[in-house]
Amino acid sequence: MPTDENLRHRGCIVVSVCSLCLISDESSDHLFLCCQFATRLWDWIGQKLNCAIDTTSVATHLSCRPARCSSQVSDIFLAAVLHTTHTIWWARNSLRFSVVIPTLHSAKIRIHSSIAMSGNISKGKCLQSDFDFLESFAVSHNCRHVKEIILVLWKAPTSPWMKVNTDGLVIGAHAACGGLFRDSLGTFRGGFYCNIGVQSVYYSEVLGIILALEYAAQKGWRNVWLESDSTSALLIFTHPTLVPILLRNRWHNARRLGVQIFLHIFTEKETVVRINWLLWATTLLERFGWIDFPLF
Question: What is the greatest pairwise CA distance in the chain?
């Protein structure tokens, strides 16, 4: 920004004084951090945000954003810092280049209206607990749309069966699959996941089944109860020609491992509660290091 300090660094000879307070030379740190006009604005916006804004340096301003908050609230904090900084610069230029004399009150109104505009066009989502905070800035609520959750009880298999839940999904053209093994007592016995790359949902579902057979054979589990929500993928047990061409050799080798399979298909309602299952399983396996199956 062309403050007096930066102009002098570029060889301009200027008589410098802060236009807002007329107390000190104009520098970036003084204008945006130390000037009486600026500090009053930062104190005011900090009260509005219910936080203390660190004015040690320009870079520390954004540290006022909460570590955990909804995306719309995070956008409000970012907008507050940016619009306050811009308003200080606007007030300085108004005093220096026009006859308009900005007041602290007019600056606050400008900041508040700018935050409201930014908050209302934000694509972020909010929680019900954020309503009072958003309303203080005249920002409309943009709540998350949560589907109705239907409770599905997991039933343990009878001994010596080992139950595995497999799933596959595609997000942004990137496919992944995974599975969790539990015994007749519901005890976690192992798990796997695999990032596949650019593939279809069907491919990921079939690969998850193949990996489950290979994992079970490696652990010596010969009786496996397999649960999946993909009817098409489970048809490969009766119609091997439905296996994707790139997986056929691996599928035939997996069927020769001596693992006995009992199949169960989730209904459409049961699938609702498993939408984010694979993402949760992947996070869980990574966090606790339960990945003891070599994946490609």
Answer: 88
In CATH, what is the architecture of 162-288? 2-Layer Sandwich (3.30)
Distance set, CA 88 to CA 20, 37, 94, 216, 224 (Å)? 9, 8, 10, 65, 68
Quote the pLDDT of residue 176: 92
Number of helices and strands in the chain (H, E): 11, 5
Query: Helix or strand or coil: residue 126?
Result: strand
Residue 252 CB contacts under 8 Å (≥ 6 apart), including other chains:
240
Average model confidence (pLDDT) across the chain: 84
The string of pLDDT tens digits covering residues 59-101 is 788 788 888 888 999 999 999 999 999 999 999 999 888 877 8
What tokens appear for 171 in the block?
């997000």
Structural domain spans, the chain: 4-136, 162-288
Per residue in 29-56, pLDDT (tens digit) is 898 988 999 999 999 999 999 988 888 8
Q: What is the mean pLDDT of residues 12-41?
A: 88
Residue 244's closest CA among 268, 212, 209? Answer: 209
Side chain identity, residue 259: V
Rounded to whole angstroms, the Cα distance separating 183 from 288 reads 19
H/E element, 209: helix 201-219
Can you say how many angstroms the Cα of residue 73 is from the centroid of all Cα atoms in its chain? 14
Give the dihedral of Cα atoms 86, 11, 23, 112; nearest 10 deg. Answer: 0
Q: Which residue has the tokens 């339960």?
A: 290
Residue 108 CB contacts under 8 Å (≥ 6 apart), including other chains: 41, 44
pTM: 0.52
